[in-house]
């Protein structure tokens, strides 16, 4: 069993209020959980207007598959949402 835990720090564009930010973040969380069956949550910077930190965990039989899932999630977030992921931390 392999577990990959990743922390994504991102900037949100066009976020004029915490309500705007939370709607984008909740959409990301729901869609990524539903599509990839990963554990995902906002873990830090909840009160920052244009920043978000999302933690996600992937469990699979192969480390390579875990990394591929994380890569797909990052690509999908950056292409479908008005955000820029500026830091990716893998947590051992």
TrEMBL record:
InterPro entries on file: DUF503, TT1725-like_sf
Protein origin, superkingdom: Bacteria
Pfam families the record matches: DUF503
Protein name: DUF503 domain-containing protein
Organism the protein comes from: Trichococcus patagoniensis
